[in-house]
TrEMBL record, chains A, B, C, D, E, F:
It comes from Marivibrio halodurans. The keyword Metal-binding applies. The keyword Methyltransferase does not apply. The lineage of its organism: Bacteria, Pseudomonadati, Pseudomonadota, Alphaproteobacteria, Rhodospirillales. Residues 21-239 form the HpcH/HpaI aldolase/citrate lyase domain. GO terms for molecular function: aldehyde-lyase activity; metal ion binding. Keywords: Lyase, Metal-binding. InterPro entries: Aldolase/citrate-lyase_domain, HpcH-HpaI_aldolase, Pyrv/PenolPyrv_kinase-like_dom, Pyrv_kinase-like_dom_sf. GO terms for cellular component: cytoplasm. This is 2,4-dihydroxyhept-2-ene-1,7-dioic acid aldolase. Belongs to the HpcH/HpaI aldolase family.
């Protein structure tokens, strides 16, 4: 499934909801893909999957009809290109701290003349149709992450980057960079103000604001703030929380 | 972790609680192993993992300090032996329909003279200590499954099998064999009566009665009936239920 | 993709065309799935893929919208059940030499009361919808293989088996069993007569006749004989033949 | 590398020396293959490798120029056929207890009319040349194992099996079946007598006698008894013994 | 197989012909290796294989007796070193745009004092013989790619790099960088002139000129221009083209 | 197992002994972990394992109760972070040639404010307890390598880096950089002097000096020089040396 489905939700004014997948399993990715999300993020930065399993997960998610997005370990053009060639509908690069970082994401995700992506869409070309070369740039979501104080302070400059489609806020690391221990929903007033101010500024610049949320309550608060794509918790978290809850209900 | 920990719970009069793991991922198995269960069942009958991944999962579960049990695809001595060699603390063979089936499980899980397990404990020997050959038979749980009408009707004969440590009831398939569609908790009176009658008969014969349960409510009911080991739902179920619940709480 | 698509081609009077996939690669399976076939056969009998890779290939083929069929290594209920649970739309069991063999295939592929398939559709349940238990028996193709003299001579008895959906002829092994070296298109008159007589007899009994063909010329001849599903050559064969042809055109 | 190299050693009157490989790694198999052995046994009965890794190991061993033999988990025709198709130069089936067992090994390893191997040499055909179908039966070593009292007592009957190329003695399990704990070199007089009597009887019947040995001392003793192929210890054993020895020499 | 075989073809005045392998499969690589090529390029830049599978493919290609070359995802010394340690006979680094890029390739592929490759030839040392450290620099082919306008314009500077053994032209990306959509054989006159001018300049500087070709017709044209190594199409292309051709010949 | 166990050995004044693991196998890693070492180094720089297998090996080593350390392919923050998230107890980055290199290692291994490690301990969080974020910096060993002349000449500057826990000397590459072919124990006087001078200088600066040794004799010499952690040879070396020794004792 190409990221056009995600762009369509946005152009229709909607809010897209996905989740992070951290396990190393296409079966897990596929089960999550049938749970009702619009997209899933295969987390190659912190997840347990290696590159080959990530490709299997991208295939499973796309085969289930939703948009597979890969968060790459670093803002590296070769890695980004491989994931797009293997069928990722979108890329999230971590640590977008400067406008140079943002331009690097765009350069790695778009073919010339917009960018410098190299030709060879081994899987993407299968579903992309005979005119994939001409239309690929529209079929991909290029996103960075605002997850450090540096990144937040450079936000407006970052947002001048052409073809940067979206930005995802990482609240745990953002809080960490302000001197707090990681928390799903930071309570440091500086971090809270940052989180509150991002949606309008990003949206105005044409980059869809998104954020990772620990639970539905936080997600609802973020949607109300104007976030347009939500990464709603994590595969392993759903599983372990459910197991602990069931164990807690036992009478033995 | 050897199955002695499980046998200890039983000899202390306790009830052990585990879960089925169906995903193809050591990470998933390990996360489940840290959730609070006493054992986990790597489901090679219906799960998505292949043999190699099952071994990785057994390693992950044992490394987390709980008992890894493997449900093998069929009651086959070679397969059972491989899983024990690779460190499974216990084996559940499906479709124990006759006393011959039960004797085959025991023969495959125990070294001579009790059984016919072949020597070569490639992983089990690492943690089993220098006297593994002498003590292995005590370190393994051999279990069958009562999951067909045939098996239930042969229960007392099956229970005459020496060294059959346990039996697990499969309610979905048991109901199916009585002509009902599969249900986590069957409501066909014949099936309910079967489920109610098994614990006392099995326990009396020295085989620990266990049952797979769809949720904590059913588990509590089964514990009250005398079941001493509970397979409490499934990794994928916890995850998908949690994800759907979170999605259902969104306001967008 | 469920095998309903394949049954639809047949009920519409059409002929389905697929191919064997022998490489150990989901990428290969997916590329073949985009080449224009109606189905693909993941060959676990002679192919290079192990069980886990076969599941990845089934996922890739189904995700590309065509029917994934698995030829299992042997007529074994546990193996057949695992492949169906993991999403195979159909099963081909080798060496259907007796009516007992044929009944075993049906028993392994259908839920009670038609058969003895065990409940636990880990992947198949994701796409199968909430009523999968009730409808699964219709969503699966159960096929045997006629590939020995014994099997051919028992054909009419084999064809009395209820719910045997199809039969695939294996010309190489059929010829071998008559004392000839394997050939894509046998020329031994006895084997040729066998191949000519099967379609009408199978179709009359309600089992779709199919055959593996080495090339399009043989396929056309077989379609003219009444074969309704064609396994048209092999992934590795297409690749190596193409490479050799290109090398042969070089001037150096 | 075809097993012809092994048969050549035997027909030249030599003794072949190999080892068991139990780790799940093509790198390990390849390093062992460069250590000086004539063949290696990929141990799918007790080793840690799954089927797919076994194929990688067979490829690595053959690529290094020595004969890859696979000990299959059980005497199962489908499994044996798969390993031969994937390039095994020889097969060892465990638990040859009866002449029927021995005939099953031969049937599974040889094409008609000698046996019932099914056609489809996906890897073996690459190196086997254009006349592989005609010559494959000569290119494969079919071996059973004498590792139980039953097997030993049926030895002469077993040795009447045409085309049974070899037999490997498993001293650990043979001792176990006589009521002793497993030992690399059994000291039970009955077992010792069995081990002493096998070489002449097997050689006379045309089946090369072989035996697994724990170390070079035992191997020399067995060679002196007339054993013509020696499985000289195990990859993991060499490694762990070496590591322990080095640790024991430390002064700290 | 060391790259000496490739250097031998060149020193004998010949033209070497290989192909790109993009699937994630040692079986595919091995089948291609038996098709008649002098070398194969495992394409880690655009192919579907991960690093581990690339090593399996290198092993399969080398075991079949031809030269395994790896195109790495980026011009990164650690990645290049790993592939050489694991047995690659040659390296192609993408995007050789500057002489610094070219020197980086050489530094990563050669041991001191010529370069900075780090010691640890885990696989390469097995076949490299006891004097591998002394002879490794001669046993490896170091190649860059001319695939951008920048690279072409810096060609003569790039060619001053000592020990740069070869250069491969990537026509698709080269065309892309001149503003054209990717085409196997570019028709933009600037690109055509570039392609025509490279062989003589590279050969004069001692770097063997090579180019990727879509088919034999283009290859013949390129050989006539003086290209000395040809990457003749792609595994997946041969396969899919063959399948489509066969499907197109069906009459149904 | 966290690296606290390793730090405890050091704070108690002891010397820790481990080994390099280069094979691609969790089974190998686990067998080595039971051989008596305090830690093992999964060698992702020169070893045969890919990233996913490295994680399996880390799990196996930790599950066996000793400290898993990963030598990463290069001094790259994303790679280091992934290995720590997946449970590595320590990191060795190659090629510590400058103080900037050393600071990069520390930044990648420690959470803010000490470093820039990103939050997401997918496996490390399972065993790390509820306060992992607060205590992780103490639970990890950050080490560089002195393996070039540049690195040695910058040693004192490198040692000013806060929180650099250790340094490992690589004698093969160190000798190479001085113009000698690699040798387990260099004999170039300059290199010998370097190796002799490092322990006192490193220990004084609070970075534990370590070195890779080819055998116990060298290790004893190095321990006497003040080295506090020893990488005692390599898995493959133990295995192959043992096999060759056994083969050399045969009389045939």
């Amino acid at each position: 499934m190409h990221a056009r489905a995600l762009k369509k939700i946005w152009s229709d004014g909607g809010t897209a909801v996905g989740a992070m997948v951290m396990a190393d399993s296409a079966m897990i990715a596929e089960a999550m893909a049938h749970a009702g999300f619009d997209f899933l993020i295969v987390d190659r930065q912190h997840g347990a999957m290696d590159e080959g399993t990530a490709v299997d997960m991208v295939r499973a998610i796309g085969g289930a009809g939703i948009v597979p997005i890969v968060r790459v370990p670093s803002n590296d053009a070769a890695t980004i290109g491989r994931m797009l060639d293997c069928g990722a509908g979108g890329i999230i690069a971590p640590l977008t701290d400067t406008p140079e970082d943002a331009r690097a994401i765009v350069a790695a995700t778009r073919y010339p003349p917009d960018g410098k992506r190299s030709w060879g869409p081994v899987r993407a070309g299968l579903t992309g149709g005979p005119d994939y070369a001409a239309r690929a740039n529209e079929a991909v979501v290029a996103s960075g992450m605002i997850e450090t104080r540096d990144g937040y302070e450079a936000l407006d400059e970052i947002l001048t980057t052409p073809n940067l489609n979206a930005l995802l806020v990482g609240p745990n690391d953002l809080g960490f960079s302000y001197g707090n221990l990681p928390k799903p929903m930071p309570d440091d007033p500086q971090v809270v103000r940052a989180i509150e101010s991002i949606p309008a500024r990003a949206a105005k610049a044409g980059a869809m604001p998104g954020i990772h949320c620990g639970d539905a309550a936080m997600a609802n608060r973020m949607i109300a703030l104007g976030y347009r794509w939500i990464s709603l918790a994590v595969d392993l978290g759903y599983m372990v929380d459910g197991a602990r809850d069931a164990l807690g209900r036992l009478e033995r």
